[in-house]
Amino acid sequence: MLLSGAESWGVSEQARARSYETLASTLMTSLGEHTARVTVADETLQIWGYRINRLKTLLMWIGTLLTLGAFRLLLYWYPKLFVKCTASRCALSSADSILVKDDHMNMAFRPVRFMVSKPDCQVALPSGAFHMSDIVKLRYFTHKKLMYVWHPTEMKFVGVESMDSEIALSRFHELAENGLSDVDVKKRMLIYGKNVIEVKLKPIIVLLFKEAISPFYIFQIFSVSVWFSDEYELYASIIVIMSVMSITIDVYQTRKQEINLRSMVHSSDTVQVIRNGGHLKVVDSEQLVPGDVILIPSHGCTMQCDAVLMNGTVIVNESMLTGESVPVSKVALPEVDDESCPTFSIKEHSRHTLFCGTQVLQTRYYSGRKVKAVVLRTAYSTLKGQLVRSIMYPKPVDFRFTKDLFKFVGFLACIAACGFIYTIAIMISRASSVKKILVRSLDIITIVVPPALPAAMSIGIISAQIRLRKKQIFCISPSTINTCGAINTVCFDKTGTLTEDGLDFHCMRPVRLADDGKRPVFDGEFTAFLSDEMNAYGELIKAISTCHSLTRIQGELCGDPLDLILFKHTGWSLDETVDSGIDETARFDIIQPTVVRNVPGHFGFECEIELAIIRQFTFSSSLQRMTVIVHNPNEQSNSMTLYCKGSPEMVASLCRPETIPHNYVNIVSDYAQHGYRLIAVAYRKLEISFAKSQKVKRELVECDLQLLGLVAMENRLKRQTVGVIHQLNKARIRTVMVTGDNLLTALSVARECAIIQPTKRAFLVETAPPPEKGASKRVQLILKQSISSSEDVVDDCSSTVDVESGHLVDSTYQLAISGPTFAVVCHEYPELVEKLVTVCDVYARMSPDQKQLLVNKLQEVDYTVAMCGDGANDCAALKAAHAGISLSEAEASIAAPFTSKIPDIRCVPMIIREGRAALVTSFGVFKYMAGYSLTQFITILHLYWLNTNLTDFQFLYIDMGLVTLVALFFGNTPSCQRLSAAPPPTRLLSLASILSIVGQLTIITSFQLFIFLYTAFQPWFIPYAVPVGQEQEDKRSMQGTAIFCLSTFQYITLAVIYSKGLPYRKTLFSNIPLCLSLVGLAISSIVLCVYPPPFAYSFMEFDPLPEIGYRLLILITAFICAVCAYLYETYFIDHLILNVRERWRKARHLRSGSSETNRFEKILHSIGGEPSWVTAAGNDSPGDENSPVRVEHSETTETLLTPSCYTTPPSSPVKVVVNGSVYDNNGHCNGEGQFYDAQQ
């Protein structure tokens, strides 16, 4: 109930706010009957209910008939308008059609379908935990390969995939016993559908039809109709052929992509399933449904669904999905007591999940027994299916090129409208027939929009794709290539991307008791596993020998590279069975577990020791550790040892404090700052039986550990990394490191490769617990200034924010943050997230979800983001980025649009260069085609003044020879070898583009008008006379010949000035086919102008110009026109407009906070000089600028500073010499030296 006006004055603001909330809730409830939100996986749909209105539909079809289909075509282009013209709004509960809008504002209109129960086929609805509830009738609709059903209880549409949530782990074990019945399978098949990920090839006729009814081709059909009616049969026929060829090429490309995708994702096999109370049955994989129990073959297969492993161990290769080629071990889902019953989560239980599309290399279980798995998801609901859907329905590129293209065509249409009015006026004044007026005026409009434009616009992308393929970079989404030209930020994974895949052992730092025997201390560095020196550290050697996930596949030791390196250094051997005659797929029984053996006499072990690994808690990114339970057969049966290794922070938190040396943090920090990857190792003794060791929860045993020591691994940078980062830095493309490694290690590597630049200060963003009195306050953020191993700050450079000149806005400092701190900022300081992602360039300990979140946040502040990675942790981020680049040996990975066989980041600048070249080519082609149309438009206007026109063969020479041939080779110009610091223009509808077209139009018009008038004043000039009584119109005229000869050179001039070279493409001369074409066309045009052969007179229907001197004058005029056009484009457009004016415009918009400025530029402008904003948000009085800010130096004690203490720029410019190169305050380098930490 709403409060009256008198009453509302007396209530508090809180009460008034509550009344508004109640009102809003009431309105939303009533609106919710018509509209709702449906969330499935990572997508949220907005849906509206509609019922088909027969009267509206009838009127729509009447309108379609009256407009000869034009009205229906318009509705096809605008789906929302189609809905309004055919349906009426209604409640979702009674809707027979659903209007769907996804996260990317794409609209679709879907019919609501029904399933009705029959005596032999009962319809059922998932009710959770693999249970089904029978219903009489089911309402549903499908969208993007997924089904959404009407839930009769909740009264809303829900995704079928989300209905089987909250599944208790015990439920999987129940299903694994007996499987489903045939009746259950039939019910589930109706709802879940066949288990097939099939990219259906659309019929060729459908592809042709859809291509042909695009706006451009509809306009061409209109144009050709006009030309045929005006008896331009030859020219119109050529245009028809060109259009058919263009459509055919487009359809071919579409079909080729569909075939490639289908061959990549389509898979089918026969599977053994357990059904009907435990009976084994062989079925086609398409017949699998969620809840089915399948058997995994011992010697491998390709998974056809997502399934949860119920027993045994499975070794899989997930490179098809993730790009990660290292085999991964999957272990069985643990049995859990009914009382606890935790629910299943893909993220938390991924180590127990076999994903669709992955290759099973081997299974391990008791000899003679089968490995079981319960089907979790099928078809497009699987992880593979989700990736395939993301390819089939890609996220629209947030790139305004296409919209600008249509707006620019509208601009050309305005020019055509002027010509349309001119033509009508001049034709009426000459008393022309209605038919001639109509045809000639419509002809003017058809000339403005070039017929070959759609095909020409794709030339740059196709050429770039071919060049990338030659460089072993494969693209499954060609539309992404143009986007790569706008990339201004690249996120890199560290391990395997920036650094080598393998790690080199550096040293060990064992922990021992001090001489007093009371406190633990670190021993010295052990750079090799020498038996004499390591005699006192037997437990550390045992931990390294056993705490791993290594296994043998066909006799070869396989597993994580780090585990392999450490294990090989110990000299121990690994066997996975006691009896060598047992097949390795049967090496699972706890009586015959994985066994490691030492070499007698080494490390103080006089006799041979066998250690059996009887339980393994696999490594988890979120837990940052792995653990094994080990038994020595020579000891009592209930005497076990637990060994744990992981990140120093995590392992230390699990250890007893009295076992940790007092300088632990300092030692860890010291190694991390030098770029070493640290592994902490700990252990504890257990008194536990074999049976209990197989069921105990890891959190119950991963506690009260004793620290054994640290292992330092050297993760070397790839040889090419420094050079590539140097290229990107020089090009002012922001580089960001996103890794799961330690923060200080990541920061050290970032310094080494210059992601953290030597001319900027670096700060670590960390958290501190709130003071006791303010326990309810937000977690306090602190800044630690990171310095190198020296105690001197690397640099204290001044701000590079140069508003007046409009140069690229930059900051004077860089931040580094860990995943846990990033989560705190996102949760407790959401107002700081946009600022943080703008200046933070190192992200450590990041989970896969956090990597994806980071990419999304970067995009929200208007960065165009590329993500480059090589492993499973990067999949989500690769999908989220504007351009995902996967480093993989496979020719194509569905995890990213780009797959590089080059195993390092050299592919990144290659892709950006080709993207820029493709973008510049697209701009150039469009402006050339627009210029060609307007040049022809001006020629026709001049000839209409004479009441004549170009002849068919003159049209043909221009359109086929001068335009099509040039456009065909336009994209062959290779990309420039160096990345320019200035990004290419990304707006087609910009002042520069419009002034370029208008300016060239003015120059062309002026010179054509000069020749047109000057010809009329020649003594030999014979005016054009309109023929009377002839069946075929004679279009020959002296002025027509003169203006045609001049215009041929103007087309060539446009091709030269719009075929831009440096800094994004090589020079025009590198494009041999285009150069030869232009030279050939120039020669033929000179011949036609100066001394045309006799056959040319008749073929071109020339009215001869008798004086050779005048023909030479036309040639000289064409040369002067070309010089003017070149000077205008080079100095006025490229220099004055694109350079000087753009800097002034950016500076003005930055000062005024205009919406035309990118958000990250505004943020950098406001915070780029000092980082006090990080800690100011956590102060009690954020408005007090003098309040203390907590800042620390990473190698010094904590200090309290005011903001001015660390933000005051130096009074004079700072220069840093690094490897022979001098860097100024802005990070500009005067040489080609590599970036390294200035202190190293």
Automatic annotation (TrEMBL):
Compartments, record wording: Late endosome membrane; Membrane
EC id: 7.2.2.-
Membrane topology: Multi-pass membrane protein
Reactions accelerated catalytically: ATP + H2O = ADP + phosphate + H(+)
Residue stretches spanning the membrane: 58-78, 204-228, 234-252, 408-432, 444-464, 925-947, 953-970, 991-1017, 1037-1056, 1068-1088, 1108-1128
Domain named P-type ATPase A: residues: 267-391
Gene Ontology terms: biological process: intracellular calcium ion homeostasis
Pfam family for this entry, one: Cation_ATPase
GO cellular component: late endosome membrane
Gene Ontology molecular functions: ATP binding; ATP hydrolysis activity; ATPase-coupled monoatomic cation transmembrane transporter activity; metal ion binding; P-type ion transporter activity; polyamine transmembrane transporter activity
Hydrolase keyword on record: no
Keywords noted in UniProt: ATP-binding, Endosome, Magnesium, Membrane, Metal-binding, Nucleotide-binding, Phosphoprotein, Translocase, Transmembrane, Transmembrane helix
Chain ranges of the Cation-transporting P-type ATPase N-terminal domain: 168-226
Ranges for domain P5B-type ATPase N-terminal: 42-151
NCBIfam families: ATPase_P-type, P-ATPase-V
Similarity comment: family membership: Belongs to the cation transport ATPase (P-type) (TC 3.A.3) family. Type V subfamily.
UniProt name for this protein: Cation-transporting ATPase
